[in-house]
């Protein structure tokens, strides 16, 4: 299979990218990053047909912002939402006009999602309580006005933060993933991975906790959450994080939960030291693909295929390429047919690829490609068109060399 063909590349000079999101109709790609020494948040809209910049808007940090982290698009494509620091902003997707700005005095935004009916925007993060620390929190905003509908803080376990949020396909349930700490001594806390479910009106449905039994080692410390993804149909949800191993190291791990009850269906830790990662589910809901970062010798990223029903490993691989191993797998999408998983990655030194296409069935590399114009290109996100014909890769060139988005035809 030939590699994807580059269609266009667009760069915003002096910026650094963090995230991207595609409009539902596939005509516009929105990129979120920062620009300038003042760390202003920058939202940019590009035409997916040509790569032409449609609009750009900077949000100054003296109004309570900072580097943008999260971006989402309303289901009808009319609005774009960004989360940065303690600020949430809504833009008109067609023009970039700011529709509203909401400030949350005590919540730092780390996750953002829109409801399927487009009426509500949810943000997740840490709610700061003076003198006590931070706790897992989720806020619901009216998507039309930015008015806060409700705020829920989960403080039944310990201090911590929420790092990701997702909404069920029918909009009835909001899922939040994060961690909470139990202080064991004046210098050491043991973290537990938490997943909490609320109704759309803010009523707690269930909460589940994974408390790692391994606590020793310099790099240990419990279990920590990462991205949360709902399977097709919304019956199961998957969380990627990292846990402490018996040897006292951190290893990436994949969790599967029953969406209705929070029951942990299965959990699988990686076999080597690492952290973080991404997870995706095939359209038929039968296969879960995980990619995780690894540290130490031969630290190429790990990629694993699981049977979604029971967590059985179908195949497990480590990325290998001549020159320099791709270390950080920072993006993962699966094509609409469920045949191919595309992984975006970052390597250090030498020549490395930015995208690898993996066979979902066999675990073999079908092709690799990289943005050859810049040797120092560092991807941060990858998105796929609904028909699977295009990939959009966003990343950074060097240090403050610009945030660059590249479009490919698969």
How would you describe what is shown here?
The protein has 410 residues and is an all-beta fold. Helices cover 0% and strands 60% of the residues. It has no helices and 32 strands. The protein has a four-stranded antiparallel β-sheet with strand order 1-32-31-30, with no helix packed on it. The protein is globular, with a radius of gyration of 20 Å. The N and C termini lie close together (10 Å).
Task: Name some characteristics of this structure.
globular; 410 residues; Methylamine Dehydrogenase, Chain H; four-stranded antiparallel beta sheet; 32 strands; 60% strand; single chain; mainly beta
Q: Mind telling me the CATH class?
A: Mainly Beta
Helix content: under 10%
| CATH fold naming | Methylamine Dehydrogenase, Chain H
Query: If helices are DSSP runs of H or I spanning 4 or more residues, what is the number of helices?
Result: 0
- CA-to-CA gap between the ends? 10 Å
- Could you tell me the radius of gyration in angstroms? 20 Å
Would you identify the CATH architecture? Answer: 7 Propeller
Q: Mind telling me the CATH superfamily name?
A: YVTN repeat-like/Quinoprotein amine dehydrogenase
Low-pLDDT runs of 5+ residues are none
- Overall average pLDDT: 86
Major sheet size, sense and barrel closure: 4 strands, antiparallel
Q: Beta fraction of the residues? A: over 45%
Structural class: mainly beta
Number of DSSP E strands: 32
Number of domains: 1
Cα shape = globular
Strand order of the largest sheet: 1-32-31-30
